[in-house]
Design goal:
- The protein is mostly helical.
- It has 21 helices and no strands.
- It has one domain.
- The model has no long low-confidence stretch (mean pLDDT 79).
- One of its GO terms (cellular component) is plasma membrane.
- Keywords: Cell membrane, Membrane, Transmembrane, Transmembrane helix.
């Protein structure tokens, strides 16, 4: 147990450090691109990425999560399963790529971008690249070796400065975003392959493939349903609205995801790998989850409230003055998505670590049904009602994911709420103060000052509570340790 705690600490250190660096780099590149490109351009790219991200689910087929979650009998079995996963990924990705090349024009027509089949054909080449990198990433995550992954991710995030932005300046429009993504994936493959100790071997076993699919089948269905949860809104908006509103929707949700992912990307896979290692020790398993929830909730809960209260400022800083219609969606999506981290995302990691991806699949199916029905209705009434409905429906996922997780772990729901109750209380006081300050007078400079005041109020309240004061001290110490490489 002591050894796993050290490994988790090191993994979290590198993961958090990476997200801090990435969240310095990514917003800068996005702010530049948002001011250089129109919402319509982002709308075009959104549909292209939607298609390739869907097909990419089948190239992985759930093998990455299988490798992380599985307890192998010996090194020989592990190596065989990894090779089976690698070659299966590669074969599926090649077949899917050729299928997209053949039907690219028809696909472009279906998603509302008629005449852009060549764009889809080019971008779908990333399927081959991700099939190479997916298994390598799983090996690093299983061993909680996030150091290499961190360095590679930071390097890849520099691509916009060296590829995308120069191409935009040369007039390549959406082609700049497409080419930038492809170069980033290629760099991922080169670095992962060069630095990894594991190299593909010509080993294969259909028997192992069938054994793996007993887990991977449900994981694939969970992944496909998760893709639909993320992208069904893009598809429906693409049908009923023009590329301008599609760009507004995609840029808004992406902006929020980028802000919140400093917490999700730095913790969810570390949590999954840690829980998978402790899946046969219920007490240690539950303690690990509650600790993660306590530390991440310290930041995620006030973050969501802050994004909602200061949504105008967040939109202006990250997207510029031409994205006024994105303000409402960024505020509401930020509020719900930030709070979902410690419920929906962490709940899903519990279910995957326990080998229960079917529960996530059921939750996602319900979410898809609700989203489709509500978006079809709200799309007739304009973009603003659609925003409200989209955000309201999203509440179903954290509620249901955590319900399944508590049933499996037998953690009492009251325990989970008590674990984060002080953060909720302090965030509500902070949010009410922010709304009051904005009500009397607001401008960009004053809002920045108000944000500092609200942050001060939040942590001041927590310092008055002995239990949360201790958590803050521990959090600060862990953050200092993360800076010591």
């Amino acid at each position: 147990m002591e050894n796993i705690n050290i490994m988790v600490k090191n993994a979290a250190k590198w993961s958090v450090l990476t997200e801090i660096v990435v969240k310095i780099i990514s917003p800068i590149s996005n702010m530049i691109l948002a001011r250089m490109l129109s919402p319509e351009v982002f709308g075009v790219v959104a549909t292209v990425i939607m298609i390739t991200s869907f097909t990419d689910l089948f190239t992985d087929a759930g093998f990455q999560k299988y490798i992380i979650q599985r307890k192998f009998k010996n090194d020989s079995e592990e190596d065989l399963c990894i090779n089976v996963a690698f070659w299966t990924n590669l074969i599926i990705s090649v077949l899917l790529w050729f299928s997209i090349l053949i039907f690219s024009d028809q696909i472009a027509f279906i998603v509302g971008n008629n005449g852009l089949g060549n764009v889809i054909s080019l971008y779908s080449s990333v399927l081959i690249l991700t099939s190479f990198s997916s298994i390598q990433m799983a090996i690093y995550r299983k061993t909680l070796n996030f150091r290499v992954l961190s360095l590679i991710k930071i390097t890849a995030k520099l691509i916009p400065f060296f590829v995308t932005i120069p191409l935009v300046l040369m007039g390549f429009s959406f082609w700049a975003l497409i080419i930038g993504d492809i170069v980033g994936e290629l760099l991922n493959v080169i670095l992962l392959t060069a630095l990894s100790k594991w190299k593909p071997k010509f080993k294969y076993s259909f028997q192992k493939l069938f054994e793996m699919f007993s887990f991977c089948g449900w994981t694939l269905m969970e992944a496909v349903s998760g893709w639909l949860v993320t992208n069904i809104g893009i598809f429906i908006i693409g049908l009923f609205f023009n590329n301008y509103y599609l760009g507004i929707y995609k840029a808004s949700t992406t902006t929020v995801i980028q802000i919140v992912s400093i917490l999700t990307a730095s913790t969810t896979y570390v949590l999954f790998s840690s829980l998978a290692a402790l899946q046969n020790d219920p007490n240690a398993f539950n303690k690990m989850f509650l600790n993660f929830q306590k530390y991440v909730g310290l930041l995620s809960i006030p973050l969501g409230v802050g994004i909602f209260v200061f949504r105008d400022t967040v939109t202006y800083i990250l997207l510029g003055s031409n994205w006024g219609e994105a303000t409402l969606l960024i505020g509401l999506w930020g509020l719900i998505f930030s709070e979902s981290v410690i419920f929906a995302d962490f709940g899903a990691m519990i279910l995957l670590a326990k080998g229960k991806p079917r529960y996530i699949f059921v939750s996602n199916l319900i979410q898809i049904l609700l989203v489709v029905l509500c978006l079809l209705w709200s799309s007739r009434h304009g973009f603003t009602p659609l925003v409200y409905i989209t955000c309201l429906v999203r509440l179903q996922l954290p509620i249901m994911q955590m319900f399944w997780a508590t049933r499996i772990t037998r953690i009492n729901g009251k325990t989970i709420i008590r674990n984060i109750a002080p953060y909720i209380f302090a965030s509500l006081i902070m949010g009410a103060t922010g709304l009051l300050l904005i009500y009397f007078k607001t401008n960009f400079i004053l809002n920045l000052f108000y944000i500092v005041i609200c942050i001060t109020i939040y942590f001041s309240i927590l310092f008055l509570i002995p239990s949360t004061r201790k958590v803050i001290y521990m959090f600060v110490n862990k953050f200092k340790d993360s800076l010591i490489l």
